[in-house]
Write a structure and sequence with these properties.
It is built from 8 helices and 7 strands; from the N terminus they run βαβαβαβαβαβαααβ. By secondary structure, it is an alpha/beta fold. It has one domain: Rossmann fold (3-Layer(aba) Sandwich), CATH 3.40.50. The radius of gyration is 17 Å and the shape is globular.
């Protein structure tokens, strides 16, 4: 995807898991990547491993001032932002009647408000630069429901809706906005939510998927990078499901 050569990309939640794999692939395809996260040690280590075309910035995606500083850092280090991957997110489960308003809003702040603030911070730079691509990481929870995860489900449905609304609003400025809905992935985030090790999570049976397993973040990243690149120049307002077939239907029992 040489169409990414020299483009400046911001990836949130970039220090580990899917964000790290997206950042590595963007970098491999020629982009200059600003890694944004709150996990400073891991983020700096990844930026150092990637080299001079990568840089780490501490970013709380729910903070307007952090977003302003992040976009400015990208401009000063590399140039105007042309690609934004809104990947940062949290996953927490709790029975709805036991969830406090504070717990609900904590999920909404990162998963939903963070996406809004990221788009709002980056779109002016993209517009001034003649266009760009935004890829919002939703989830299969953005197109169906997850039991005991009402707030997470709500936040990811919102990401899908915001993606489509922004695509309509900013298409004339040559800014494309798409969403990717991964299924269950072998990431530290999911392992921590189940309080198990990543290796134990990967070894567990996963009958929900026609492929019989969870996905690896490296299997999701190519779809994100395709949408970030000019190879997808006529694609906007779309939702790409990469879930190993989980949402295709109910698996047979025999």
């Amino acid at each position: 995807m040489s169409s990414l050569a020299d483009k400046v990309a911001i990836v949130t939640g970039a220090a580990r898991g899917l964000g790290a794999d997206i950042s590595r692939l963007l970098h491999r395809e020629g982009a200059q990547v600003l890694l944004a996260d709150v996990r400073d040690e891991e983020g700096r280590a990844l930026a150092a491993a990637l080299g001079p075309r990568a840089h780490y910035v501490h970013t709380d995606v729910a903070s307007e001032s952090d977003w302003s500083a992040t976009v400015q850092a990208a401009r000063e280090r590399f140039g105007p932002v042309r690609v934004l991957v809104n990947n940062a997110g949290i996953y927490r489960t709790r029975p709805t009647l036991e969830q406090s308003a504070e717990e609900y809003l904590a999920i909404i702040r990162i998963n939903q408000l963070g996406v809004f603030l990221g788009m709002r911070a980056c779109i002016p730079a993209m517009r001034d630069a003649g266009g760009g691509s935004i890829v919002n990481i939703a989830s299969t929870a953005g197109i169906e429901a997850v039991p005991f995860a009402l707030a997470y489900t709500a936040s990811k449905h919102a990401v899908v809706g915001m993606t489509r609304a922004a695509a309509l609003e900013f298409g004339a400025a040559k800014i494309r906005v798409n969403a990717v809905c991964p299924g269950a992935m072998l990431t530290p985030l999911l392992a921590e939510s189940f309080n198990v090790s990543l290796s134990a999570l990967g070894a567990a049976p996963f009958a929900n998927s026609p492929l019989g397993r969870m996905g690896n973040p490296a299997e999701i990243a190519p779809t994100v990078v395709f949408l970030a690149s000019d190879a997808s120049s006529y694609t906007t307002g779309s939702v790409f499901v990469v879930d190993g077939g989980i949402t295709a239907g109910v698996m047979p029992t025999s």
